[in-house]
Amino acid sequence: MASTTVAVIDYGMGNLHSVASALGHVAPDAEVWVTADPERVRTAERVIFPGVGAIRDCMAEIRRLGFDALLHEQVASGKPVLGICVGMQALLEHSEENGGVDCLGLLPGEVRFFGAPKGPQGEVLKVPHMGWNQVHHSDHPLWQGIAQDTRFYFVHSYYVQSGDPTLVAGECQYGVPFSAALAKANLFAVQFHPEKSHEAGLRLLQNFMAWDGRP
Amino acid sequence: MGLAKRIIPCLDVDNGRVVKGVQFVDIRDAGDPVEVAKRYNQEGADEITFLDITASHQGRDTTVETVEKIAAEVFIPLTVGGGIRKIDDIRRMLNAGADKVGINSAAIHEPEFVKAASDRFGAQCIVVAIDAKQVSGEGEPLRWEIFTHGGRKPTGIDAVAWAERMADYGAGEILLTSMDRDGTKNGFDLALTRAISDAVSIPVIASGGVGNLQHLADGVTEGHADAVLAASIFHFRQYTVPEAKQFMQAQGIEVRL
Question: Which listed residue (A58, A85, A103, A172) is catalytic?
Answer without folding.
Answer: A85
